[in-house]
Design a protein that fits this description.
The complex is a heterodimer of chains A (about 250) and B (about 325). Chain A is α/β, with parallel strands linked by helices. Chain A has ten helices and ten strands. Chain A has helices at about 45-50, 75-80, 95-105, 115-125, 140-155, 170-185, 200-205, 225, 230-235, 240-250, and strands at about 5-15, 15-30, 30-35, 60-65, 65, 80-85, 160-165, 190-195, 210-215, 215-220. In chain A, the strands form two sheets. Chain A has a six-stranded mixed β-sheet, sandwiched between helices. A four-stranded antiparallel β-sheet of chain A has the order 2-1-4-5, with helices on one face. The two termini of chain A are about 30 Å apart. Chain B has one domain (about 5-235). Helices cover about 80% and strands about 0% of the residues of chain B. Chain B contains 16 helices and two strands. Chain B has a two-stranded antiparallel ribbon. The chains are: A alpha/beta (about 250), B mainly alpha (about 325). At the A-B interface, helix 2 and helix 3 of A face helix 9 and helix 10 of B.
Chain lengths: ~250, ~325
């Protein structure tokens, strides 16, 4: 088991606020890891640090053994570090197909626009977005746009994918669809870091859970252990959920 | 319009402009030279303003610098066409260096910065009298031959520059550069995230938007034989060029061509018929066109209009 993405003593402050505080962790190649924590814990800041949107105040980031602390976002994308946004960021007046092709052409380093379009078509099929290929991205529903974000990231042929609340705002059948897709993506060998508030998603997907609070990693372990962890309950889950979960788990 | 239709339209238009000396008066030939010249400038602006969506008002700076570099080279004894080439390269290098700084600004801030460039360069040129002649301007060696022969030479030159700008546009439109610029135009952060080197692409687009302005400026200087700072760095040009492009359809291959033709011809018509109010009328027409046609003339669905007209006539014929 080799670690693919490693954060070493990462810190980042915005003025007086310590958004990320001396954080270290590693992602193992091929695993699905969930990152949870209350609002303002620093989850999105962490993803921004890992993809070069912002620079850490101190600490280092290594990707496949290489120091990538000072990388810029487009370099992260070309290396295979893809991310989706909590607030979806399509190219609104381009078609769904062109949106995905953009990921393939630049992040996926396809040699030509035509080759990128071919890859995009295949991916739309895989993501069940093929019927919307020629519609403008702005015409999709929220669920569709979230899936488009996934398809765009997939087109970049990522090694690590960071999914920032891809399920927020979806109804339960849409969530089930998204879960299936994320599992299929993982089966292709992509390492996944998923930021999630829905414990249902975390419990069913994640092999490992990182819990962030005030920019610090307060706990780390299997999902089942995390919901019993005192610190996690205090900081994030709350007594009520933990009790309900324990009851549900006991009754099978 | 399909791509091949746009290319065909351009080819016909080019032949029409190039053939004016054979069938039209000197006035029309002069108009054709002006149209070819402005089309080259508008096609240039389209790279940064249309494809990348950065509202640049630096056209006059590039054009004026082209005028002066070309004029100074020619006065130093450089042959005319070589002087044009020097002006092109100089203005391109100037834009690349400037772009690295000014393209950090976005939206309105970029627009204001790009206007500032025009003013700064104009002031530099008019103050540096020992080299540029200051407010007195510069004279250039005139071409020998009659006015007709000279007009033909400059018509050909401007049309070749226009053709070069158009071919570059066609290439950009189909290449990954154009794709990346469109991504930047729609959402720059997202473009960065999918792996577009946005800084580099924007600098390339800005440089492309300057190159042909340099050539046009230098050949304009050779054509008129005299340049001065006020005319070379006219802020009106910086505004007219984007308006022409918006009128035709920004970010398209043919939009800049159609917009320039429509604007220039309208301007002529209003000059001839309404000498007192021509600016006001032209202004009103521009406001109306841009207000009702945000995508430009190219974005009109002519089939849609035909359908509506047909429906209207059916409705009229129907018994009350």
């Amino acid at each position: 088991m080799t670690s693919i993405l490693v954060a070493e003593k990462l810190s980042r402050n915005f003025g007086g606020i310590q958004a990320i505080d001396d954080l270290s962790f590693a992602l193992i190649e091929g695993e699905i890891v969930a990152l949870i924590g209350p609002n303002g814990a620093g989850k999105t800041t962490l993803v921004n640090l890992l993809t070069g949107v912002i620079r850490p105040s101190s600490g280092r980031i290594r990707f496949e053994g290489e120091d990538v602390t000072a990388q810029r976002p487009f370099e992260a994308a070309r290396r295979g570090l893809a991310r989706t946004f909590q607030i979806v960021q399509p190219f609104p007046r381009m078609t769904v197909l062109e949106n995905v092709a953009a990921g393939a052409l630049f992040g996926g380093a396809q040699p030509s626009v035509a080759a990128a379009m071919d890859i995009a078509r295949e991916l739309l099929e895989f993501m069940e977005l093929a019927p919307f290929a020629d519609r403008p991205a702005s015409a999709l529903t929220l669920a569709g746009r979230k899936r488009l974000e996934l398809a765009k990231s997939m087109a970049m042929r990522p090694k690590v994918m960071m999914l920032d609340e891809v399920n927020a705002g979806l109804n339960s059948s849409e969530i089930n669809g998204a879960l299936r897709l994320i599992r299929q993506i993982a089966e292709r060998g992509v390492t996944i870091l998923i930021i999630e508030h829905l414990m249902k998603v975390v419990m069913s997907l994640a092999e490992r859970v990182l819990v962030l609070h005030h920019g610090r990693l307060i706990a780390e372990g299997s999902a089942a252990n995390m919901v019993r962890d005192k610190k996690v309950i205090e900081a994030y889950l709350g007594e009520k959920f933990a009790r309900r979960f324990t009851v549900e788990a006991a009754s099978g | 319009m399909q791509r091949w239709q746009q290319y065909a339209f351009f080819a016909v238009w080019l032949v029409l402009l190039a053939s004016t000396p054979l069938w039209a008066s000197n006035y029309i030939v002069r108009l054709a030279i002006t149209i070819a010249m402005f089309t080259a400038l508008t096609l240039s602006w389209n790279f940064i303003g249309g494809f990348a969506g950065y509202p640049s008002f630096s056209t006059a700076a590039f054009f004026g610098l082209g005028c002066y570099v070309g004029a100074l080279s020619q006065r130093a004894g450089v042959p005319m066409v070589l002087a044009w080439a020097i002006a092109t390269l100089f203005v391109g290098a100037f834009a690349a260096a400037l772009g690295a700084i000014i393209l950090r600004l976005r939206g309105h801030y970029f627009a204001i910065g790009s206007i500032g460039v025009v003013e700064v360069v104009r002031l530099l040129v008019s103050s540096w009298g020992s080299v540029t002649g200051g407010g007195d301007g510069l004279n250039l060696p005139l071409l020998s031959g009659g006015p007709n022969a000279v007009a033909r030479i400059f018509l050909l030159a401007m049309i070749l520059i226009m053709l070069a700008a158009f071919l570059t546009t066609v290439w950009v439109d189909r290449s990954r550069l154009g794709f990346g610029l469109r991504c930047i135009q729609q959402n720059e952060d997202a473009a960065n995230m999918v792996g577009v080197n946005t800084t580099r692409y924007k600098i390339i687009a800005y440089t492309l938007s300057a190159l042909f302005c340099g050539t046009v400026g230098a050949s304009y200087a050779s054509w008129t034989g005299y340049i001065d700072p006020t005319e070379s760095f006219s802020i009106l040009m910086s505004i007219k060029i984007p308006v022409m492009c918006l009128l035709g359809g920004p970010g398209t291959v043919l939009g800049a061509v159609i917009g320039t033709a429509a604007f220039t011809l309208l301007e002529e018509v209003f000059w001839v018929n309404f000498l007192d109010y021509n600016r006001a009328i032209l202004g009103a027409v521009i406001v109306i066109l841009i207000f009702f046609l945000p995508g430009g003339l190219l974005a009109i669905s002519y089939r849609d209009i035909a359908g509506r007209v047909a429906k209207l006539s059916v409705w009229r014929k129907a018994p009350a």
